[in-house]
Amino acid sequence: MSEFVIQIENLTKTYRTGLRRSHVFAVRNLSLSVKKGSIVAFVGPNGAGKTTTIHSLLGFLKPDKGSIKLFGQPTGSASLRRRVGYQCEIFHTYPFYTGTQALTYYGRLAGVSKDVLSRSVPLQLERMGLTAAANRKASGFSKGMTQRLGLAQALLHEPELLILDEPTSGLDPEGRRLVLEIIREEKAKGKTIFLSSHILADVERTCDEVVMVRQGEVAFADQVSSFSNVSEEWEIEVSGFSTAIRDVLGSRCSVVSESGDTAVLMCTSEDKRELLKALLSQPVDIGGMKRRRTGSLEDAYMKHVGRA
Amino acid sequence: MEQILLVFKNAFRGILFARSMYLWIIAILIVGLQLAPQIIFRDNAPNIAAFGQRQRPAPPGMTEEQQKQYQQIQELQRKQFELQAQQVQEQFKRNRPRAFANGLSTWTTLSIFFGILLGANVLATEVSAKTIITVLARPISRWELLLGKWLAIQLFGVMSLAVGVAIQFAAGQYLGFHFSSLLWLALLHAMVAIMLYSAIALALATIGGWMVAAGISFVMYFIPDFVTFLKGETIPWRHVLGVGLNWIVPPGFKSIFVNSVDATMALDRSALSKTLLENALYCAIFFVLGCIVFSRREVRLG
Question: Which residues does chain B have with pLDDT short of 50?
C-alpha cells in the first residue's frame, strides 16, 4: 500500500473567461504529495489555486493535465470518497434541517447506519460545542456554528483522509482553538489531514508540512518544524558599543545591526564564552542574549508567496 | 437504493420548504374561474329567457288591428325566445360534466408546468445554495442524486393530481355527475406527462441555467401539434423540419378527461397507448441523457 494518501503530479487547470473565452491558469504544473498520518497545510493568497486543487482532488473539477491519486488510485470513485471527509470553505447546509438532522443526512449519505449515527451524532455535536443547538434549524446558526457543523459532518463517518478548506475561517478565538484541538486529536487517531489556511499561526501550531502556492504553482514546501528550529548562533545586545570595542572583539563576532551606541552582535556557540569575557572587560552593558532563529513561517510566506 | 431514498426525502422536503404548495392556490384560482359559472348556476342554469319577457308597448299611431298584430308578433317572439332559453339551459346542464373534465385538463396542464418549474429548479437551487458540494463529496453517484430529485418531483406531481381530482370529485358530487373508470387512464396519461416534462427540464438544467431549461421545456410542451402540422406540409424544407423535430419532440400530453364523463366521445385506444409508450420512452431517454451529462460535467461554484 502506498505511503502517500494524496499524490498530485503536474496538475494544470485552466478556466475560460471573458468574451474571448481566453484561458486563465488556476493551477499550473502543481505537484505535491501527502504522507499517511501527516497534517499538510496548503497555504497561499486568495486566487492562488487552493480551492481549485481541492475541488480537483474531490473530482468536482476535471484537470486539463496531470494526475491525481487518492490512496494510490485515480480520484473520482464513490468508494474513494467513502474514505474522505471534506469540509468546504464556507459550509452550506439545508435551512430546513436542524443540526442533528443535517448530520444524520450527511452521515447516512456516507453509508453510516442509523444505529451508529444515533450514537455518533450527539457525540460530534458535543465535541463541537453544539449540543444546545442540536434541535435548532441550521438556518439560525451563526457563522462559527455553521463552520463547526461543517467540520462535524466531515468527521462523522471516521474518514481516513480529512480535506479541510479554511477550517478556522469565521471562527472566534475559542472556536478556532477548539477546531485546532480537534485537528490534532484526529491526527493522533492516525488520520491524514490536508488543510488550506490563511492563518499561519494555526499552521505553525498544528501542521507537519507546509506547501505554499502562488499563482497556481508550488512556490515553497518544507517541514513546519524547520521554522521552529533555532540555530547554533547567538545574538547579544550590547549598549555603549563603539569602534574601539569592535576592534577589541576582533573576529569573534559580527555586527548584525547597529543603532547609536547599541549593537546586536552575532557569534557561534563556541565563541560565545570568549566574547562574553571580552565584553565584560569593556565599559558596555549587555542588554540580553538569545539563540538566533533561522526564520519564521511568515518570513517564508512573505519571501515566496507575498506580493512584496 | 438507500442513497436515492435519502436524496428523494431531502429533495421533497426542499420542495415543500420552498412553499411549492402555493402553486396549488394559483391552480385553484385558475380552474375556479373556469368553472365559476357551473358552480354559481348549480340549481338554475342562467335564464336568458328573462331578457325576452319585457313587453314593449305598441308604437303610437297604430290602428287597433295593427296593435293586435304587433302583440301577436311579440308573443310569438317571446315564446321563441323561451324555447331557445330552455335549450341553452339544457345544454348548459348537459355540458356541466364536460366543463369539469376540461377543468381537470387545465389542472393537469398546470401540474405539468409545476413539474417543469421544479425540474428546472431543483438542481439549480442546490448549486446556487452551494449545498451540492458537501453532497457530492459523499460516496453517491450523480445519477443517484438526479434520480432522487426527479422522484421527489413525481411525488409532488402525484399530490398535485390528487388535489385536483379530489376537488373535481367533490364538485361532481355537489353537482350530481360522475367520472367513469376512464378517469384512471386519463390520470395515467397525465402522470406520464408530468414525468416526461420534469425529466426534460431536469436534463436541460444539467447543461444550462434553470430559466433556459424551463423555457425549452415549455416550448417542447407546446409544439407537438405544430410538429405534426409541419410533417404534413408539402413544402420540402418544412416537411424535413417537421420530420426532424418529430424525432426530438415527444408526442406530449393528450387529455382524455372528457371521455371519462362523455361515453359518446370517440376514443382511439391504440393511438393513446402508442402516445403513452412514446412519452414514457422519451422520459427515459431524456433522464438518461441528463444523468450522462451531469456525471461528466464539472461542478463549479461561482
Answer: none
**What CATH number labels A4-227?**
3.40.50.300
CB atoms within 10 A of CB B74: 16
8 A C-beta contact, residue A153 and residue A185: no
Residue whose C-alpha is closest to residue B122's, from B148, B103, B140: B148
Q: What are phi and psi of A301, to 5 degrees?
A: -65, -50
- Beta-bridge mates of residue A222: A210
CA angle A38–A218–B139, rounded 5-degree value = 50
Mutate which of B138, B300, B301 to test chain A, going by most A C-beta atoms within 10 A?
B138
Contact B189, B256 (CB under 8 A): yes
Per-domain residue ranges of chain A: 4-227, 230-293
The grid coordinates of residue B201 equal 427540464
- pLDDT of B76-101, one tens digit each? 888 888 888 788 777 777 777 888 88
Considering only CB atoms, which chain A residues are within 8 Å of B130?
Answer: 88, 90, 92
Provide the residue type at B273 as one letter. Answer: S
CB pairs under 8 A between A and B: 64
- Residue-level pLDDT at A101: 93
> pLDDT, tens digit, for every residue of A56-103?
999 889 899 999 999 888 887 888 889 999 998 888 899 899 999 999
Element (H, E) at A168: none
Tell me, rounded to whole angstroms, the distance of Cα B146 from its chain centroid.
Answer: 25
Q: How far apart are CA A260 and CA A247, in angstroms?
A: 17
**Alpha-carbon distance A57 to A77, whole Å?**
11
Cα(B185)–Cα(B192) distance, integer angstroms: 11
Check A153 against B129: CB less than 8 A apart.
Answer: no
Whether this model's ipTM surpasses 0.95 comes out as no
Taking the C-alpha atoms of residue B257 and residue B186, their distance in angstroms, rounded to an integer, is 6
- The fold adopted by the segment(s) A230-293 is Alpha-Beta Plaits (3.30.70)
